[in-house]
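notes to self, project folder thing:

trying the whole complex as one job this time. last attempt i did each chain seperately and stitching them together was a nightmare. two parts in total, labels are on each line so i dont mix them up again. if this works i'll redo the older ones the same way
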Amino acid sequence: MEQLLLLIFLPLVGAIITAFAGKSAKIVSTVFSVVSLVLALVIACNFIPNASTQFEVNLPWIADLGINFHAGIDGISLLVVLLTNLLVPVIILSSFNHEYKNPAAFYALILFMQTGLLLVFTALDAFLFYIGWEAALIPIYFICAIWGGKDRIRINMKFFVYTIAGSLFMLMGIIYLYLQNPAHNFDIQAFYALNLDSAQQGWIFWAFFIAFAIKMPIFPFHTWQPDTYTAAPTQGTMLLSGIMLKMGIYGVIRWLLPIVPFGVRDWGQVAIVLSIIGIVYASLIAFTQKDAKRLVAYSSIAHVGLIAAGIFAFNQQGMQGAMVQMLSHGINVVGLFFVLDIIFNRLKTNKIEELGGIAKVAPQLAITFLIIVLGTVALPGTNGFIGEFLLLMGVYNYGIWAAAIAGLTIIFGAVYMLRMYQNVMLGQTNSLTITFTDIKGTEKLVLYTICALIIVLGVYPKPVLHLTEASVQHLLEQVNQKLNTVN
Amino acid sequence: MNIIITISITAFIVLYAGLFKANKALLPLTVVGLLTALGFTFCAWNGNAVHFGMMQTDNFALAFSGVCIVGTLLIFLLTQNYFHAKSDNVAEYYTLILFALAGMIMMVSYKNMAMLFVGLEIMSVSLYILAGIRKKDFASNEASLKYFLMGAFSTGFLLFGITLIYGATGSFDLDKIQAYLVNNTTSVSPIFYPGVILMMIGLCFKVGAAPFHFWTPDVYEGSPSLITTFMSTVVKTAGFAAFLRLFSGAFAPLHDFWVAPLTVIVCLTLFIGNVTALFQKNFKRMLAYSSISHAGYLLFSLIVLTKNSGSNVLVYAAAYTFASIIAFAVLILVKQKTGSDSFESFNGLGKKNPLVALSLTVAMLSLAGIPLTAGFIGKYLMFLNVMTEYKSLLVGFAILNALVGFYYYFKVIVAVWFKDGAETELSAPAQYKIVLLVSVVITLILGIYPAIILNLI
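result (full assembly):
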């Protein structure tokens, strides 16, 4: 149990120290994020891959209101915890070629956000989950609004109000569940055991679903996303797309499905339809983008749409696919945004038509970028393939037409991503791109790490699948059992 | 009782100290007096003593007295150089604020409606003078006159209400009124009902709930900032305590009757307060309208009466008081430097004054109700309170209003951190730093570990 507390609060301690570290904030935050990663790996090694919740902590917090500091890790949590603690050092390292003004605040906010994210991913108490949910939002708002690009104030205000609107309705749902719970606490097991009728579950479903859908985002709740991704500093975009959107997916799996299975049965179809509309819609818009960063932002909506569809299809393949894809998408999208950041950093543009021929002057970047793009378009042998394959299989088991339309994401994705790659990297160098210099130092370190992960997970995904299998199985059984009891 | 005596005596001593031009001694004297009163508050804890059948110092009264005294203490610490720059007769400020505080202590601990009236008048009369204390200033005079006229009106309503209730029950005593209602469930005298409504209107005037809020923005804007701070925090807290004491105690058996008009008042208050605050260009006026909207959230505790209603109001009022004190303290500093209290004068504050800006940010987050600050716990308790009867529509409405609130509170944060401005360096005296630090710490502690305050009442 001490391990888990250490895992959650180490980044917070790091944040406080970093805030006072002044010029050496970069190094201090790197050290803390790497130690957190090691800690997460230690926990992963000690984790027994069965369905049980391990490293559980249950301390009274606000006893009068039935609020406990109850957290623990099962296979599903562990996966996202690993993703978080893996990506945060990568993201911090990726900032080394930047000189942000007021670095102490910048890195402290990243670490503060990490604690919020870890709370979300380990909380077994709904109130704690909510606190983590908001604690992750505040730092990213400041990161994006202070260090972001053009028009950042308006865009981030929209992002903030959008997401917090969702979460307040979720809070209302949580209070409702709390009041229904005879024990008057926020314990997740007590919430699982509630006997709510279909109508109640329908309301709760929407209260939670909208919060999660905004976070992911699912069509039509996505309108904040492209602007925010584009205007944010690259590290902010990476945090948002790599980790933060997983909060929504994780929320669906941990809180939505098991608490309101009847709600999901009644309304899940709507969710799938919205997800699939989102896939097609985002892919089509991605085609027309002239800015590479916006293109990646839209492609992210398409990928997340597929993950959501896989989860709401509600079968073993879809769920496992979602697990693997959460990890893969996090790694790939961080890689993509980093490459675009490198290009922007050198050439001050991400406009596709102004670029071209970079591969000639930067062969190492070309190779690594290609691997990341191939991972994103789900080429067999890369990490993207396993996840998307399982997801499509899951959706296929749900309905052939759904799978046929959702499958377009792979074709569309391949077309617009490869076209983007072609226009940016291949062809003739122009007067701008001739000045490009190849990657070096921490850039190399980050990109090589990401490429290695893409290939290793693509060739040998078994550890990941094995890690989550028992927990996913357990979740499915639990929900099915509840669905089978007469309500 | 000791508390009121201590505060009143302090007020007189301060007045005489002023007479002998001992201006340097005023603040230490006041602080010692208030700390003594605070000490008496602690000593009386769990005593539940009844004084001459007129006042009852139960834990409810003591907890609110404590919040009021601490709030006043912090405001006094902000007076350094503030009054001195405005007038030679600073002792009057001190004395009047102390008299107002004595009135408030009566308002939070009355057992007899006569005491409610007396307390309210002692407080109000002091405030009328305080609002207009800058004799040569047009806005200050306007504020004072408006406040006086509106206040006199509302006192009229209140008195008329008290009279009707006396006519129905034959008593001013809260317990006897409650007993009357309990014993005559079917045959409550018809003049009792208008009495309740008139008292509700009178109290709504005092706490600035819509549609009886029209005086608030002008009075808050026109009064000296420090007096505004006092009016919008401590006075408001006392007003709500008085409201709650009456309606969740004596009038509780008639809850079904008065909850409908109250719900209308709550919705109007939330909506008008938030939407008008949204369009303000002046920081002080924005705080005035936002204080109206907070009155709306505070009244949530009366819509559903639970055993926690008092405690919920205490948490919310404490959260609101400390956050507002920070906001006004920073406002005073900024205004001293730039001479303006518009949002623009806050632009770029964070660059040169990171700690002041950080305090202001915490205050805004708390007022907006962001987790890990006291404001969130307050809002959460209010929502929880109303949800216990599953009034989801009302909570949904409140959530929409909270979203509007985020927008204008974040406008301040945006100005402070994200906009480029004059980058003036504020000269914050040590006392301001203490007040900011204490308020920020209290806001965060109540936000992270509210258990310490939840069980008080």
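what i see at first glance: Chain B is about 75% helix and 0% strand.
need to look closer tmrw
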